[in-house]
Amino acid sequence: MNTAFHSLPPLTSASNVTCGMVAGMHFLLAVILGAGLLIEWKLLQTSELGETAVIVVPFIAFYFAAGLGILRWRNWGRLLSLGLNWLNVIAALLVILFHRMSLEGVVGVLLSAFIIWWLSAPSVRKRFKVGRGGEQ
């Protein structure tokens, strides 16, 4: 029996490039959420966004903070990112289960799963706990 597909090889080191990509994805999500909020505000032609802003603005701040924490190799950024990505996986799976399967939902789950996997790898966890990518 071929076991090549049963487990991924262990991640032996935490890459600065991967760190930058993961942080960049968080910054990009913050920008996308902010742009969506601005577009809705412009389309509604109102001075208030109400409930939408109450939900979206904290997520913009959380995604930006997570990206910054990851970029600086801070463990709090790793933990915040893990929480945000687990929320994304759960929300996307609920949408897929109860509404419809969409390319955006599948891509979102796959990207979040990759981030969760990378941030949970022992070598990456160790590097975040040391801080600043291994610098003392």
Describe it:
This protein is mostly helical and 136 residues long. The chain has one domain (16-134). The protein is built from 5 helices and no strands. The radius of gyration is 17 Å and the shape is globular. The model is unreliable at 1-6 (pLDDT under 50).
Task: Give the topology, please.
Layout: H1 16-44, H2 51-71, H3 75-98, H4 103-120, H5 122-130
Helix pairs in contact: 1-2, 2-3, 3-4
Largest sheet: none
Overall mean pLDDT stands at 84
Whole-number tally of structural domains: 1
Form type = globular
Number of strands: 0
- For the terminal residues, how far apart are their CA atoms? 45 Å
Radius of gyration: 17 Å
Which stretches of 5+ consecutive residues score pLDDT under 50? 1-6
Oligomer: single chain
- Could you estimate the helical fraction of the residues in percent? over 70%
Tally of alpha and pi helices: 5
Beta-strand portion reads under 5%
Tell me the structural class: mainly alpha
